[in-house]
Amino acid sequence: LKTAVSRLHPECEFIFQLEREERRCLQYVAEQGNRSSEGCWPFWDAVACWPRAVAGETVQRACPAVFSLFKNNTGSVSRNCTGGGWSRPFPPYHVACSVDDDIPEELYFTTVKMIYTVGYGVSLVVLTAAVLTLLFFRRLRCARNFIHIQLFGTFILKSVAVFIKDATLFSSDDTNHCTLSTFACKTSVVFCHYCVMANFFWLLVEALYLNSLLLSSFYHSRRCLWGFSLLGWGVPVLFIVLWMISRAYFEDTECWDINEDSPYWWIIKGPIVVSIAMNFMLFINIIRILIQKLNPRLIQFNNSSQYRRLAKSTLLLIPLFGTHYMFFNFLPDYFNVNLRLCIELCIGSFQGLLVAVLYCFLNQEVQKELHMQWLRWRERSYGVVSPAAKGSQMDTPF
């Protein structure tokens, strides 16, 4: 128990220490209850315990030790015992004890939550439309689009998991996240971690598949696709189960959503870090291959269009490979939390939208099939037969 408590989030440690101080204070107040009622009664003001005092007395209390979790301070707060009771504390706690006003921080987190909620919501709709489009047209059924569908599926599950987790953990402002430890909240956290991990592994599958296409022209059989599926969906299950067992037996605290300084968090974070590093190396390798293939005769670029093609290919690969995650990949979890949240939550929430648009709706094959379907609809609705629609009646089976 001592090991688990020592790994509590500072905010939870703050709450638990306050609760312990409150219990001591209420016990002290109860013990003073039978004494004379003259002067000011002892009481707990939600931060410090104030003793009995006589009218006209000024009582000074050192800043509660719990504030040392955030800042090293040696200030003090005073109250006057008057005929009408205790005065207000002076100076205020946040001034005397150097505690920052947390209103701007709350506003920041509320803004971040609003942005990523919009991002995941829009991504969910667009990704669902992209998956249905790729499944609807027979011409689009190929190994490449099979992998795209799986990746889109992980983005969809990731969005759903975030909404479920927020609904479970943040449904009410009165929820105490430090004591919340229900089966529902733990299940939502586990599901969210699995979806995130599966998303990273399918990003890795995309990188492996593209590298294999550029390096060789072998046919990707069903066995190869099964191997990709096992890597993308199966491997995360193994690490998630190991993490669940570790948390349940060695660190069964709160809702399993606080992982700072926890060694067991590396069961999930470690494979994700490795997958991001591998994706980045595969990304660099693909750029190298593209540079060589842009102009087989001359590696030196003498045409600005060559640069444009390379830049376009590079930019298209960044969201597909999750290259932006390299920015914070090897930094500690507590490094610049605000900037980290902005990149991982706000920008990351729109990654699925960007991938769906770039690799589905802007794809020429998809656009052609959608155009043909529109022409067929016009023919059925208005009897207008276009040459393009006539030429598209014969579909090539997969």
From TrEMBL:
Pfam families: 7tm_2, HRM
Family: Belongs to the G-protein coupled receptor 2 family.
Residue ranges constituting the G-protein coupled receptors family 2 profile domain according to the UniProt record: 24-101, 112-363
Domain of life: Eukaryota
Name the UniProt record assigns to this protein: Growth hormone-releasing hormone receptor
Main localization of the protein described in the UniProt heading: membrane
Database matches in SMART domains: HormR
Annotated signal sequence range: none
GO biological process: adenylate cyclase-activating G protein-coupled receptor signaling pathway; cell surface receptor signaling pathway; positive regulation of cell population proliferation; positive regulation of multicellular organism growth; response to insulin
Listed GO MF terms: G protein-coupled peptide receptor activity; growth factor binding; growth hormone-releasing hormone receptor activity; peptide hormone binding; vasoactive intestinal polypeptide receptor activity
Keyword Membrane: yes
Cellular component GO terms held in the UniProt record: plasma membrane
